[in-house]
Amino acid sequence: MPADPTLAAAAAAAALALAALAAGIVSHLRRREEAVRAEARLEEIARQVQALGTDLRGAQAQAREEQARHAAGLEQAVSAQLRQGAENLARIHEGLLKGMGEVHRQVTTALSASTEQLERRFEQLTRATDTRLREIGGQVEGRLQEGFKETTATFADVQKRLALIDQAQRHIQELSHNVVSLQEVLADKRSRGAFGEVQLAALVRNVLPEGAFALQRELSNGTRVDCLLYLPEPTGTVAVDAKFPLENFHRMCDPDAPAAERARAARLFKADVKRHIQDVADKYVIPGETADGAVLFLPAEAVFAEIHAHHPDLVELAWRRRVWLTSPTTLMAILTTARAVLKDAATRRQLHVIQDHLVRLAEDFDRFQKRMDNLARHIRQAGKDVEEVHTSARKITRRFEKIEKVELAPAAPAPELGEGPQSGEDDEDEP
């Protein structure tokens, strides 16, 4: 019959438990034996400790006796050392007192000497400081005086400059008023025309003589020209008329105006200039009376520059119609050239007079040369005469000196007849 697996496992487990129990019992028995042996060992140790305590109590009693004897000897030795130390301290204290007294005397002497030296140095330092302070005070006072002088001069200069600034401010205000007045004048067409005429007249009067021009002269066709320039042939009489197309020019240059309005103003400006060119060519170029060209004066440099920079067709039209466009600057150059031409013509007209004067001047110079030669000859003769007079004066002086020597010296034998003076003694200066 086969064995049941459960029973076998239980039997095995029981066997294992019994084995573990047996091992635990054996271990307990072993520990019990060890405890018995340890207890016996402890009893032995207790007996040894008791014996050791008895020996220790004997040793302690002996040590106390030895300590008492040693303490007594030590007390005696300490007492002796204390007495000796007290004596040594007394001697040391006495020596210290003496040394302290000596040190005190030395320190007192050194302090006195140091105090005197410090007082002397302090006095020297005080005197040097006072001297330096007086010098610095003098320098500071001098610099302050110079500074006051410079400040006064600067203040006076500032006052002068302020006065100049005030004067310039008044001039600026007057100029602003004049500019406003000029703007008011230039706003009206007739006023602009009068301004151009006045400017033209001022330029002409400043450059040309009175007989070389005429202002507001009426021509044979009934028109009145602003200025006529009387130049030599072949140029002849040149008409100058002032035109001032300013209104449309301002509108054209206004940056705040719309582009369409500026373009319209540019067209109108161009039409105004073209009309002025044609009017000048038609009215002031008269064959047989005026030159074959006329001058159109534009009082504003900006207008003149605008035409030459952006409107070459107007410049070409002016050249075709024999009209010369000018500004104040270019007109000044033209008038200066005209003055040179007038001066050259006047010189040519007076050329024969100049030649006559040159011939007479040559004759006068010939007479002057002859008279100068005569004068030079007389001067040379006078110089020769003066030199001869000086020679005679020197001879007379030497003879007087010889006479004085004869009076002072002993008498000398008279020279024999036939003996003359020493070689060249009296005649060395004869001319």
UniProtKB/TrEMBL annotation:
Residues 35-62, 165-192 form a coiled coil. Residues 407-431 are annotated as: Disordered. It comes from the Bacteria. It holds the Pfam family RmuC. The keyword Coiled coil applies. Keywords: Coiled coil, DNA recombination. Gene3D superfamilies: 1.20.1260.80. GO terms for biological process: DNA recombination. The keyword Cytoplasm does not apply. InterPro entries: DNA_recombination_RmuC (IPR003798). Residues 408-420 have a biased composition (Low complexity). Belongs to the RmuC family. Involved in DNA recombination. This is DNA recombination protein RmuC. The lineage of its organism: Bacteria, Deltaproteobacteria, Dissulfurirhabdaceae, Dissulfurirhabdus.
